[in-house]
Amino acid sequence: MKDIYINLKEELKHEDFIEKDYSLPVKSLDLPSEYSSDKKDLDIHLYIIKEKDGYVLSMDMKGELKVECSRCLEPFNMNIKNVSNVMITTKRPTKQNQELTQDDLMVEYIDDYEKFNLTNFVREEILIQTPIKPLCNEECKGICPICGGNKNENPCDCEKKLKRESSPFSKLKELLEKKQKKEK
């Protein structure tokens, strides 16, 4: 599917603000392979205001993506609820090597008001808002590094066994047990 472009100049030619709703197919976002969706679309509500130096875009995004838990590696549905406010402008900063302020991070620089790519903007917002290590839940126990089992489904005691065997006193314990067997 093609990207969705908004002609900001044309849309706000006779208005100071507009409100629009979009249903954006997840497949059109060209997200990395670890993202998928059972639900086909993301719901996007836009509120765009004309300003002196550009446009202020307020976007409310709702939907669901399927991602992999970084602890147990099981896929789970992650709710996407995001509100973004950004200034859209063609006026780029003139200074090189200047320190960015918090306000500078809320600006989207585009080349032409007639071709604002909504699809790219939504893709960027999803990638920014998604945790680096998504978790199916905060109490996820992950997978066992020894047997590879999902500790949420099958709790195991592999780590306890390994800890006992790798203890510096485990050899002493073995020698003591051998001595006790000989004495019997």
Description:
The protein is α+β, with helices and mostly antiparallel strands and 184 residues long. The protein has two domains: 125 residues, no CATH class; 44 residues, no CATH class. Helix content is 21%, strand content 31%. The chain has a five-stranded mixed sheet with strand order 2-3-4-5-6, covered by helices on one side. A two-stranded antiparallel sheet has the order 1-7. β4 and β5 form a beta hairpin. 12% of the residues are buried. The model has no long low-confidence stretch (mean pLDDT 84).
Fold blueprint:
Blueprint: E1 5-6, H1 8-11, E2 17-25, E3 41-51, E4 54-68, E5 75-89, E6 107-109, E7 116-117, H2 118-129, H3 158-165, H4 170-183
Parallel strand pairs: 5-6
Antiparallel strand pairs: 1-7, 2-3, 3-4, 4-5
In brief:
The chain folds into 2 domains: 125 residues, no CATH class; 44 residues, no CATH class.
